[in-house]
Structures
1.
Amino acid sequence: MQTLDFITPLVDDPFVFGQIAAANSLSDVFAMGGEVINALNIVGFDDCHFSNEILREILRGGKDKIKECGGALVGGHTISTPEIYYGLSVTGRVNPRKFWSNNTAREGDLLILTKPLGTGIIATAIKAKFLKFEEFRDAIESMILLNFYAVRALAGLKIHAATDVTGFGLLGHALEMINDSVSFKIYPSKIPLLKSALKCLDEGLIPAGSYKNLKFIAPGVDSEPDIMLCDAQTSGGLLLAVAEKDAARALANLKNAGYTSSAIIGEVVARAEHKIYLV
């Protein structure tokens, strides 16, 4: 499998930015139940206003995450750009019999979300200088946590479908998971949220992408959701459709692997009028 992604800086620390961007790029492989073989750096760097030391720190952060999941950094390409961006082209592999598709959920499955929502709102608040570092540390820890460990924690369990939650928000990616045979019941009260994001939400610090997501998902949902469920995530968690008999064990394994906010947030039911019901 091959995947590619890159982002612009979310934080002032170049090493942490490199870690977040790499974790975000690597996530697509883990969302398919795969493992990373190698990666190539993709870099746009403003060398007119920033020193090469900043660039080195970004790349060091990215390499740190590639190494953490057992991958090899095999090169890359850097160009001069007016805005900094960084990401990876990633090569991964997966046993075809263990591949996680994103649209094969089955009636009776339970839906598990592995990370809390709110990183899009946090990114907006950081850019607006609304928060001090200590106030959004929970978001940083969430974004740099690789989904790699979730794949290992779920080995041997029946994962019928999976996706990572990124730019389309929770409900946008949930819609991608639905096939002609099923609908999702999602329980908003069960969805984990970053504490720092709730503070920002009260101040109206919501990215434009989240409103676009809200408009996009509206035809498939039975009622208008809270904007947080449409928040455009960076390096978000996995949304998993897990066989009911394995759900409790999956949740325990995920928490033990470091995904302490993991929660069962819904269930897969027979296809009804709407694709998603908020209950």
2.
Amino acid sequence: MRVLVVEDEAFLAEMIAEGLRREALAVDVACDGREALRKLEDGEYDVMVLDRDLPGVHGDEVCRRVVAARLMTRVLMLTAAGAVRERVAGLRMGADDYLPKPFVYDELLARVLALGRRTLPALPPVIERGGVVLDTACRTASRNGRPLHLSRKEFAVLETLMRAEGAVVSNDDLIEQAWEEDTSYLTNAVRVTLSKLRAKLGDPPIVETVPRAGYRIGA
């Protein structure tokens, strides 16, 4: 799942981003409305955590443009205003959910994950294939009953492959779903992560390389 955090308070933005990354989510950060709109043009996001009171372009306008462009991005709006009328106004302009500040991080995480499920194929929280069991709610994985101790990136890559249900996932799609924005090193990073993941999954090999196409989970 890919998330865009739009928050002008740098400390809060990084706190949210790091917390979400610990859940194996790919997270980008924007510090104002203009930067958020540029990132939305350049990449696809499942969820946007959007502060309402932004410099540059107001959060309300960012939300309106997301709705007008018919993006699949779900919007969780944050604001210091806790009045019911403020929450209603945010939802009426197109936000999918609303969370007043100050908030409890666990609640924010639960809301982000719930919104993200709306943009992903409808699959149960526990996915099984080829002896691999992936519990996306508890963030645990095993193969043939043997626990797999995966890094955040390894878990994200495995989840992306498992959700494809045997279909080929391209290198670009893996980057889109499992990594934050960057450019130069990602192709090699995918190879390294897949190599480590394959070693942890053990034999017989289950992650197949499809030449000039990508990767898939075998039967």
